[in-house]
């Protein structure tokens, strides 16, 4: 069996990465998503082990010290990281493993991992980033401001990515991501 590969998905907070991933998971059985660990507070809509594994700062630091994370970064003031073991296992099983991580994490993966695919999700208009964050209503005004500042920094990293994916219509964006996966699979078969 052919090995799978890593697909790194980044993009500003609120751009709809999570929705695209949810949709594509319904359509394909060759992909899995990595569930990150984070020190962020748990939102009311979230469940332990579904969106994230929620950790204290001490627990998180222990994972870092034990070299259990493939990458980790501070995003909007909280720590986030990707458990290494799960990713390695699933790639061996032939899966496409989706990492929904920020650009700092993506850069670490670029430096440590061969053959990953890097996709940056963009809104059709820059202003949509702010509108979507406000519409989601999960963040305070202060947190929205931090996320907008991070979005600006993130947009500067676009050039590092292999593909840009404009999330104009969810069905179209999902289809484009699926096409990227097929293309990358075909490349690896050659
Ligand atoms: P949220 O707090 O909205 O769930 O996530 C905020 C941002 O953290 C996301 O846009 C995502 O890019 C980033 N993120 C989530 N998990 C990880 C991770 O494991 N590593 C890194 N580097 N970033 C992550």
Protein described:
With 190 residues, this protein is α/β, with parallel strands linked by helices. The protein has a single domain (5-189), classed as Rossmann fold, CATH 3.40.50. It has helices at 17-27, 57-65, 84-92, 103-112, 127-136, 141-155, 170-189, and strands at 5-10, 31-33, 36-38, 52-54, 69-75, 78-83, 96-100, 117-122, 163-166. Strands 2-7-1-8-9 form a five-stranded parallel β-sheet, sandwiched between helices. A four-stranded mixed β-sheet has the order 4-3-6-5. α1 (17-27) packs across α7. It is globular. The structure holds guanosine-5'-monophosphate (5GP). Guanosine-5'-monophosphate (5GP) binds next to β5, β6 and α4.
What's the quick description here?
The protein is α/β, with parallel strands linked by helices and 190 residues long. Helices cover 44% and strands 23% of the residues.
CATH C-level name: Alpha Beta
- Which sequence of strands runs across the widest sheet? 2-7-1-8-9
**Largest sheet entry:** 5 strands, parallel
Indicate the percent of residues in helices: 40-55%
Output the CATH homologous superfamily.
P-loop containing nucleotide triphosphate hydrolases
The chain-level structural class is alpha/beta
Percent of residues in beta strands: 15-25%
The unreliable regions are: none
Number of separate domains: 1
Multimeric state of these chains?
Answer: single chain
Strand runs, count? 9
The backbone outline, from C-alpha atoms, is globular
Enumerate how many helices there are, as a single number: 7
What gyration radius follows from the Cα positions, in whole Å?
16 Å
Q: Note the run of SSEs as H and E.
A: EHEEEHEEHEHEHHEH
Mean pLDDT: 93
């Amino acid at each position: 069996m052919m090995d799978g590969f890593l697909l790194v998905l980044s993009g500003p907070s609120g751009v709809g990465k999570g929705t695209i991933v949810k949709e594509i998971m319904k359509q394909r059985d060759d992909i899995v998503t990595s569930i990150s660990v984070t020190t962020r507070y748990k939102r009311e809509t979230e469940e332990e082990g579904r969106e994230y594994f929620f950790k204290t700062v001490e627990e998180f630091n222990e994972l870092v010290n034990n070299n259990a994370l493939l990458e980790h970064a501070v995003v909007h003031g909280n720590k986030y990281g990707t458990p290494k073991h799960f990713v390695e296992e699933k790639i061996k099983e032939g899966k496409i493993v989706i990492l929904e991580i920020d650009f700092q994490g993506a850069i670490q993966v670029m430096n440590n991992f061969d053959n990953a695919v890097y996709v940056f999700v963009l809104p059709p208009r820059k202003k949509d980033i702010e509108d979507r964050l406000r519409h989601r209503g999960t963040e305070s005004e202060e947190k929205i401001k931090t996320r907008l500042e991070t979005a600006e920094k993130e947009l500067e990293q676009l050039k590092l990515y292999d593909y840009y994916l404009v999330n104009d219509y969810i069905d179209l964006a999902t289809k484009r991501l699926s096409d990227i996966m097929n293309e990358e699979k075909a490349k690896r078969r050659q």
